[in-house]
Amino acid sequence: MTSDQAVSRRTLFKAVGGAAALGSVGALSLGASPAGAVGNGFGLTITDHATFDRMEYYRFATSNISWQPGVNVLLPSDYYTSGRRYPVMYLLHGGAQDFRKFDMEDDIRGLTAGKNLIVVMPDGGTAGWYCNPVSAYNGPRNWESFHMNQLIPWIDANFRTYAEYDGRAVSGFSMGGFGALKYTAKYYGHFASVSAHSGPASLRRDGGLVVHWANTSAQWTDLAGGTIYGEPFWDQGRVTADNPVERLESYRNKRIFLVCGTDEDVNETPVRNGQREFRGLLAQRGIPHEWYELPGAHFVRREMLQADIDGVIARLKKA
């Protein structure tokens, strides 16, 4: 298959991964952020805020996104009384999901109960692929710029974090697992730990299937006909810059945690093949990594997310 050959639209939409966008949840309290957060720095303006026990919800206006993306910030239970700084885990959702996925589907509060870790869960678009697309015909959808140039500095400015390499991890599911691997490679000094739960690690294999997933899913859901990597001809420089298997040295001296399923599935089969390729190349380079292949297909495995969180805390600077 060449880079300009299409994959069936049905397969592509299914392969974006994960559950449909989730319904609204009422807030326990509304108003000024108890963190004293301000939104007029780093190009962000807070347009909505609510507190759900130890969860802080925000919605921002940003020139990078033509609508107002949401972000959940889950704090340790003693955050407002301890005065300490904490490490941060950025947790990225999959396709056809949003920033509420891990709270509403995966019990992120239960998994982090009693743990000294801030978890930041941002919107990434229905099929945003954690990228700045080559083209968008309905306003900007620059998720990479929003996350890396605006959100991370805003979090560090408004919460007691360690704003350094050993203070940050990034993890994600499906499309978000790809985003985590991509951000770690492109922004080498940002994250000391990276995790991909059923996340693609190889863009060009199988005739460029993952690039086709990204292009076609985004074209029909997020970009009004635009594409992530260009169509019919790819922006090859962007593909190389984003492709984990072409950025191997960027993962050296980091904690790497990879999970995929063993079932044959339109999502998991190509993900597993790509992770195996990635793992093999890491091994050839002598780059340590932790990996698991478990029964089942394309979903977040609670025990693996718990193991990931515990591993992140063990690797990062302590609160």
Automatic annotation (TrEMBL):
Enzyme class: transferase
GO molecular function, one term: diacylglycerol O-acyltransferase activity
SUPFAM superfamilies reported for this sequence: alpha/beta-Hydrolases
Reaction equation(s) it catalyzes: an acyl-CoA + a 1,2-diacyl-sn-glycerol = a triacyl-sn-glycerol + CoA; 2 alpha,alpha'-trehalose 6-mycolate = alpha,alpha'-trehalose 6,6'-bismycolate + alpha,alpha-trehalose
Record bears the keyword Protease: no
Domain of life of the organism encoding this protein: Bacteria
Pfam families associated with the record: Esterase
Catalytic activity, EC: 2.3.1.122, 2.3.1.20
Keywords assigned: Acyltransferase, Transferase
PANTHER family found in the cross-reference section: DIACYLGLYCEROL ACYLTRANSFERASE_MYCOLYLTRANSFERASE AG85A, ENTEROCHELIN ESTERASE-RELATED
Similarity field: Belongs to the mycobacterial A85 antigen family.
Annotated protein name in UniProt: Acyl-CoA:diacylglycerol acyltransferase
Organism of this sequence: Nocardioides marmorisolisilvae
